[in-house]
Amino acid sequence: MFAAGIAGFFLLLFVMSRFIWNISFDGNLRFSNDTLSRELQEIGVIYGMRKSQVDCDQIEEELRSRCPQIVWVSAHVAGTRLQIRIRENETAGKIPLKDETPRNLVAEKAGTVVSMIVRAGKAAVQPGDEVKPGQLLVEGIVPITDDSGEVVRNLFVRADADILLQTQESYRENVPRFEQIQSFTGKKQTGFRLRIGRIDLLAMLPVQKKKLWEVTRAGKQLVLFEDFYLPVWTEIITAREYEVVERKRTKTELDALTKAVHERKLQDFIQKGVQIIENDVKILDNSTGWTICGSMTVEEPAGTGQKLE
To answer: What is the 3 state secondary structure string of 86-153?
Structure first.
């Protein structure tokens, strides 16, 4: 009887080894695993299919065809796992055609010109000048003069320049005096889920629907060896009862929140290529809480295109 059980076990493993029970993806950044899985499903590649039905060459061709941003695909069957490795195109879209339409460059914000390097056009301001929003910075009309200095004609160009402008930036963000948080009551329920193929078994007492519960799940698929996956999944389910309570923020919490908000704002400007010269933040009381007020002196690229009239 024991020998028959051992023989039956190995026979079952042999049968299971003829199918695909796990599909993994590697190298995908733009495309999520769920997106790639749906693409595979549309061409008939699914969990539980026979390994003999897996055509790796077709999978590679179909993924490249369906997802033009994917430039290289490798499909490989190892054990009961189908491994898909991809490489995505790192360049974002096609290179746009160069626009040669004549234009001016004007200021988007008020500030002081720090530096200016003009590649095409005629400078209308100089470093140190104060400018207003909409003011002309570089003119797209360049006068052509003769030997006597008289203008014989105008050359219309697409103004182009590296302009650095010192400006003032500010923000305001309201923070409520009170916040709602989760307060756990201490009641907890734990359950276990076992899925074998399409059979789904759950051992857990039902939670009270009128109560609030935070549910966490931790699951994994059964694997005997590195690539020998089986159609068996286990999951531990934990539910913790909680109540929503309102509490007043402390001075320490407000200071920490203010610092986090200000750092986030600074990083937003830095990511836009803005250089921060000075910055300051303060907290003001209001009727419902506080207002975080930040101010910054920054140097940023300036000059937006304006069509020549």
So the answer is: EEECCCCCCCCCCCCCCEEEECCCCEEEEEEEEEECEECCCCCCEECCCCEEEECEEEEECCCCCEEE
